[in-house]
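User: Hi! I'm working on a homework problem where we have to compare a predicted structure to a textbook description. Could you give me the structure for the chain below?
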Amino acid sequence: MKNFTHGILSALLVLTGAAGADAQQFTGGLRGQVRDANGVIPGVTVTLTNEATAISREVVTNEVGQYNFPAVPPGTYTIRTQLAGYKTFDRKGVRIGTQQFITLDVMLEIGAIEESITVSGEAPLIETSSASTGAALDREILETLPAPGRNAFLIAITVPTVNPVGDPQFNRQQDQTNASRISLGGGGIRANNYLLDGVPIGEMSGRAVLNPTIEAVEEIKVQVHTYYADMGRTGGGVFNTTAKAGTNEFRGTGFYQTRPVWGQELNFFNKVAGRTKQQTGLADSYYRLWGGGFGGPIWRNRTFFWTSTEGYRSQTTRNLQEVWPGPRQREGDFSRSTIGGRPVRLFNPWCRGGVANARCPATGTG
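Assistant: Happy to help. Predicted structure tokens:
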């Protein structure tokens, strides 16, 4: 039993190490240099605080005044610097997105540490720390833009060079086959990588194994042309997804959607034929979509949760026209075949007698 327990623990350690080694990056980063009028300042304490969770990290500038915060989860942050003999510097509203690396240099002024300089409302910082680029689908975009079937990945069609070629009617959460028929940046169809918090969720065939509900997604970074070398398993682009997380405030979302029969119209051919909604089955159809999310603190400033769900029920009509053989045709007699009520002559492609252009009427039995 002891050896068995040791074996299980060893396997878990190996799997954990393998997962860490293979993980692809979704977190961002912040770095910069602290200076004053005379040059760089080493030994400055720099604090980065998540404004939604109050979780903070501290670093100290090195001998050339540089600081660096790697592996920063996407969010909005406040950066603060403190050093005796200088005014405290505060920069609020620093937004760090999915795999976004920002450079922010700080200029300190001489004064008492109790004095402070607060910067807010400035223009968003431009990412200059890396060559990796991509368009971000943030919460505002995910909640505002129309999404067929509420498929978050398909909202990426708003990004240049993102081209879907799948059947547009198959766009629900379980429709991975058609919803994944997307070309990114001129790459192959289904040649893309799907990540959720750095974990690949793509199959070997190029499909996403799941389409997460929009209520569970914080941001999707669509990396089309330039991304890091650790972004493997792609010949086109990357859907780099960050899952939604709880904060120090309880919050939630909810929605309900339906398609009333009175607002639906018959298709063109049924309407021309004079058929009614009852005759076509449209009167019995329905579509109901619902979902939501809820989250908040378990332990304030330390542990949080977020849960979400989505589901639907539907009964929809589909129209299909088929042509079946008549009694004579089932016996091999095609001599009285018609198309649209008019007699038509059919030929047997296998009855050529060795002559390539021979035409043998498909009449009689046998």
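For your comparison, note the following. The longest strand covers residues 286-299. Helices lie at 2-22, 139-144, 176-179, 268-272, 277-280, 327-330. Good luck with the assignment!
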